[in-house]
Amino acid sequence: TQLLEQSPQFLSIQEGENLTVYCNSSSVFSSLQWYRQEPGEGPVLLVTVVTGGEVKKLKRLTFQFGDARKDSSLHITAAQPGDTGLYLCAGRSSGTYKYIFGTGTRLKVLA
Amino acid sequence: GAVVSQHPSRVICKSGTSVKIECRSLDFQATTMFWYRQFPKKSLMLMATSNEGSKATYEQGVEKDKFLINHASLTLSTLTVTSAHPEDSSFYICSARGTVTSGSVIDTGELFFGEGSRLTVL
Fold first, then answer.
1. Closest-CA residue to B36 (of B19, B48, B24)
2. Is the pLDDT of residue B100 over 70?
3. Assign residue A69 a region: left if phi > 0, alpha if psi is -120 to 50, beta otherwise?
4. Residue A21 forms beta bridges with which residues?
5. Which of A6, B14, B68, B99 could make an S-S bridge to A102, C-beta 3.0–4.6 Å?
6. Rounded CA gap, B56 and A50, in Å?
7. In what helix (H) or strand (E) does residue A63 lie, and over which residues does it extend?
8. Chain A, 5-34: which have a CB under 8 Å from a chain B CB?
9. Per-residue pLDDT tens over the stretch A45-67
10. Do B111 and A45 touch (CB under 8 A)?
11. SS3 content of chain A, % helix, strand, coil (to 5)
């Protein structure tokens, strides 16, 4: 069974601080996605990474896919209260269309 | 972008009854849809892969007779929770796999999620 472990599980920080969320697995993924989910809603896709070592930026968010395609990180610069939510990574192995979700990181940014 | 709609968004039912949740891709055809279950403050757990015109593929530990999935058309998949019990109360989310084309077919495997359906079994 594939496992995608995210760390930390919970994070509460002050507005303006930086943070990094990690997504780790022993499995190799052909692609990895990051989502943010608000309570009572479906997840919203932030980014998809497919190449080992790939770095993508989305405004204050920086996503990196590990060289071996087993891990990924999400870095948020100058966090804002609007960044509050559940962050989920999801990996897809080659030969399958299904994504397995990570354990999740709940972020709260205090004003 | 691609839109996936779930209905109902909230449902309350009595123990022992069956509940059907619909997942529709509104502006694209989805040969593959996925059903997830999410417990409060937890991540999404993949329940099954729904394939149009064929039987669903269930993940280990998911009772296929309990959670009936039907994908009768390219835009609709349904999840029926049969003989529901309070422990079936959860947030159920569907997603449809989209295909991006740019000249040639490029499948990024992007998932488009529905809004989710909250089931409460009394």
1. B48
2. no
3. left
4. A74
5. A6
6. 27
7. strand A61-65
8. 30-31, 33
9. 999 999 999 999 999 999 999 99
10. yes
11. 5, 55, 45
Enumerate residues 6+ apart whose C-beta is below 8 A from B79: B20, B21, B23, B35, B47, B67, B68, B69, B92, B94
Chain B environment of A87 (Cβ under 8 Å): none
Amino acid B37 reads: R
Tokens of B28: 């694209």
**β-sheet bridge partners, residue A58:** A61
Inspect the interface and report whether the beta carbons of A42 and B93 lie closer than 8 Å.
yes
pLDDT in tens, A65-91: 999 999 999 999 999 999 999 999 999
Q: Tokens at residue B82, please? A: 């049969």
Distance from CA of A82 to the nearest CA of B (A): 18
C-alpha dihedral over A104, A40, B12, B64, to 10 degrees?
-40
Residue A6 identity (one-letter amino acid): Q
Count the residues in chain B: 122
- In DSSP terms, which residues pair with A63 in a beta bridge? A56, A74
What is the average pLDDT value for chain A, to the nearest integer? Answer: 94
CA distance A75 to A10: 15
DSSP state of B77: E
C-beta atoms of A97 and B108 within 8 A? no
**Residue B116: left (phi > 0), alpha (psi -120 to 50), or beta?**
left
